[in-house]
Design goal:
By secondary structure, the chain is of the alpha+beta class. It is 25% helix and 28% strand. A seven-stranded mixed beta sheet has the order 1-2-3-4-5-7-6, sandwiched between helices. The longest helix has 13 residues.
Length: 190
């Protein structure tokens, strides 16, 4: 298995994988995927057995991205990396692809970004993803309704600061999450 930068030749397989993971992920088309990759901080794929096994897309601060979850995090964190979407193909689930992505993200982001942020659905409930994120150290920092109130997400954060007495970057750990700036609630749009 190899985690590498996403290339335009990966787009068809990434789109197919993304769109088989609704409602956990929002639907994409080709132009929107290209736009997201162009403005991303990182866009990675995992290859296994000569197939695309998964992908992820991460944004940094001040991206031109109109997502209510991204806006929620942007209003509360000055420096961050936001994992907008991650998907693993059914044939490659439960073999370490997700953990490999998070290890690679931690390796690439630690030192430049203090926290990795993401959200997981709690309505409809995604217990597998909630348990996975908790197992690698993500902590809930908020909740919000999205999609006109039809979904609720748990807003999660993983500190990328090296734990005390750490020899340096490693796999995700469980240090404290940087504090959230208090911000008055803003009206949400879908």
């Amino acid at each position: 298995m190899q985690v590498r930068a996403m290339q335009p030749t990966d787009f068809a397989a990434v789109l197919a994988l993304n769109n088989t993971n609704l409602p956990a992920l929002n639907e994409l088309d080709g132009p929107e995927l290209q736009r997201l990759v162009e403005m991303s901080l990182l866009a990675l794929v995992a290859d296994a057995d000569d197939a695309l096994a998964g992908f992820c897309i991460v944004f940094g601060p001040q991206a031109d991205y109109d997502s209510s979850n991204y806006r929620w995090f942007s209003a509360r964190y000055e420096q961050f990396a936001y994992l907008d979407r991650i998907a693993v193909a059914v044939d490659f689930q439960r073999v370490g692809i997700g953990r490999a992505f998070y290890a690679e993200l931690t390796r690439r982001l630690r030192g430049d970004h203090p926290v990795l942020l993401c959200e997981v659905n709690i309505r409809p409930r995604n217990d597998t993803s909630l348990a996975f994120h908790a197992s690698i150290g993500f902590r809930e920092v908020g909740r919000q309704d999205t999609t006109g109130g039809t979904k609720t997400v748990s807003l999660l954060a993983l500190s990328l600061a090296d734990p005390p007495d750490s020899p340096g970057p490693s796999a995700p750990s469980v240090p404290p999450v940087p504090p959230v700036r208090p911000v008055p609630p803003r009206p949400l749009t879908a």
